[in-house]
Each structure stands twice: as C-alpha cells, then as structure tokens.
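Encode chain A's predicted structure.
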Amino acid sequence: MSESIKYEESRPEDLRRVIAMWPVAYVPMGALEWHGEHGPLGLDGLKARELCERCARRTGGVVFPAMYWGAFDTMPFPFTLHFKKSYTRAVIRKALPQLAGFGFKMIVVLSGHYPPSLIRLLKKETRRFNKKQTGSFAMGAPETVFATDIEYYGDHAGMWETSIMLSFGPQLVKLEALEKGLSTLQRLDKGIMGKDPATEASAEKGHEAVEHIVAGVGETVDRVLAEDSDLAIEDAYQKYEQTMKILTPRIFHVAREALDVHSVPEFLRYYIKVFRKL
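Encoded structure for chain A:
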C-alpha cells in the first residue's frame, strides 16, 4: 500500500522513508487571482494542491506546498497579483535539480493556473531538465492535460473550475453571488471564462473531472517509473498539443466547450475583448 505525506508537516525520517519506496514529488502551482464573485481568490492553488494530494494517495509520494507567488498572465481584475515570467522560470530551474538531489525519480509540477504561456514554459523547462538524463524525470502540466477526454479543456471560474471546487470545498464557493442569465461576453466582464457556472456547475461534474485527472496522472507516473524514461510524459504532452492545435477545424469545438462561444464572429469578439483586457 502506497504512502503519501506533506513535505511541510514531515520530519527527515518521514521523507527518507517515503522517497525510498515512492520517489515521487508533487509540486502544485496556483495564482493569487480573481475567480468571479463566487470563487476563492486562491482557487488555482487550492485545486492543484488537492489534486496533488489525491494523486499522491494513489501513487505514493511527497506533496509540496502550492506555489502562489510568481504567477504571470493573470486576469486584469481586483485583488489579483501579477508577476513576470522570469520569476517562475527561475524557480522551476532551481527546484527541479534540487528535488532530484533529494532522491525523487519523478517530479510532477501540476498547475491549476494555465495561460498558454505558462503551459509552454512548463513543457520547455521540464523537457530541458529531462534531456540531462539525471535519473530523474519531470512533468509540468495543467490538470486539463489529463481531462480532454471528458471535454474539459480549461476555463476560468466557469463550469469546470467551479464544479471542481464544489467537489473539494463547497464552503468556499458562493453560487448565490452569481448573476443569472448573463451572456458569454457579459460573464467575461465579470472575470468568468467558460460555461455558465450559475446553471452548469455541480459537485458531480467536479468529482468526474477529479477522478479522470487523478487516474491520468497516476498512469503517467507509473509508466515513467516502470520504464525509467520520459516517454509517458511526452505522450501526455503530444496528445494535449494535438487536441489544442489552433490551425485545425477542431479548435472551434474546443472553443465552444471551453469558452462557450458558438460562432466565428462571437469567437473574434471574445478574443478581441480578452486581448484588450490583457
């Protein structure tokens, strides 16, 4: 039976024991960012930390505290902190070899905050680390990499994120704070990207997503350790890249499911509005 522990609550002997048997490090990433009037400001990190804890219970390993400071390309709304990309890059570059030095064979950087720029950075930095062939492997990805099979491509305070939080900590979500009957573009003005959480979010949907994500991460971790290679990580990256490829007709299906836009003109208006906000 696997064992998982929290790094900050552990003593050295706990760390030695778990690393010897289950050498997997889970590093959750989040942001300090507006998630509508209904969601907690630390939603991304809370979500990533809980996902990491559930993954660790499946595979065994050590869960580190969530990284909140340093998140970049955050939303232009109140109570949101903004940083430069170089901060996150520096932390990742410093952290990965040190974790490998502790004896971890697999390092999972799971991000609940996932602008495209961060997804690219995590892939680039983990691939850079893996090429050194240190005997340890790293994967950096948002949880959505393991949920496209259920049409979860990522949103922001929308149906999926709200559903996941309802399944984790319903006391942190205030659905009654949501305005009813808003259009997709009106919800964007409120800091909500995706399907309407007021009518579509549920703990049941969140539970489905969580189970799917935990299974996908667990299978990838198991393969990496069994094969002693990064092939499973690359398979996960490539499957996600193919799904999210912009220059394919499928991208309009992804946009409809992720952003709740239903026509090319609406998509263009949405894109322009987001660009102006950033």
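The chain has a mean pLDDT of 95.
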